[in-house]
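Section 4.2 – Deliverable D4.2 (structural model, holo form)

The reporting period included a commitment to supply a predicted holo structure for the target in complex with glyoxylic acid. Inputs used:
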Amino acid sequence: MAVEKTPRKFFQPLAAGAPAPYRDLPVRVERMIHFVPPHIEKLRARAGDLAREVDVVLGNLEDAVPIEAKEAARAGFIEMARATDFGSAGLWTRINSLNSPWVLDDITQIVGAVGDKLDVIMLPKVEGPWDIHYLDQLLAQLEARHAIGRPILIHAILETAEGVKNVDSIATASPRMHGMSLGPADLAASRAMKTTRVGGGHPEYKVLEDAAGDAPRVSYQQDLWHYTVAKMVDACAAAGIKPFYGPFGDFSDPAACEAQFRNAFLMGCAGAWSLHPSQIAIAKRVFSPDPAEVAFALRILEAMPNGTGAVMIDGKMQDDATWKQAKVMVDLARQVAAKDPDFAAKTGL
Ligand code: GLV
Ligand code: MG
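Output (structure tokens):
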């Protein structure tokens, strides 16, 4: 039987002097989490411009940073965090995994130096709630030591078979949980999936139409990630935290990137990673609701002022449940409009 904290204990700070955990997540539009390699000075220097363009700037310390640049990436992130005004963009870092030789310095040095500016720590290779508990406790101690006034949140990457198995208990491990991202590359390796791609489909993962004489048989590619994204979305929605699609590695195929991001959006995800500047516009487009859908949703809300009953709009039945669907759409649209003048103009919000 799982042993869990009582509800009252769950919301107490884990160290004397640490800020009280959030009961509700801060409401933020996070359509793209843009990855910056902070050991590269030229890219670090552009962080201010980037922050006006993206919803989240993330300094990546983990995979894709070579061993010889690990310390430089950490120092570069601290320098970038100090030097940059991020405006309304979130500031995140992806630290190294908990079993690596760099992670303790990543956490202690970054929280010590710029913990008051840091919104979220992305934790890779999370296997179970024990990984979250470790970081949760350590962050509380460091917040207390450095007099940080608001809790730093944790975002887990779902990228091991064991993590997927434990996804529900990861989602509810701490009030510090912000959300999680699908990590299709590590997850493929962990599961011994036979793909070398980072996200996206595979031409051999398909369903073949039944044979009918000698007629050519149609086949359709299926989505390799459907099961995992669905499982992640349910775990996150039930826990009141946010699910994200992670990376899409084929920068030469923007249409495929858009299709994966859109599936994730339709299924309930809040955003995705942008690893290349060209993916920023894709994520912005995909994770902002379609203005035509928003217009229709507004009509539903208007037709059912108290959210109950049944009405017909353009031949389509609406009731209490579709009112709730419309409210999801309009609430998101209002958040996006408040931050994005182009979107506000398109939707009239
Ligand atoms: C991301 O970290 C991945 O492994 O896909
Ligand atoms: Mg990974």
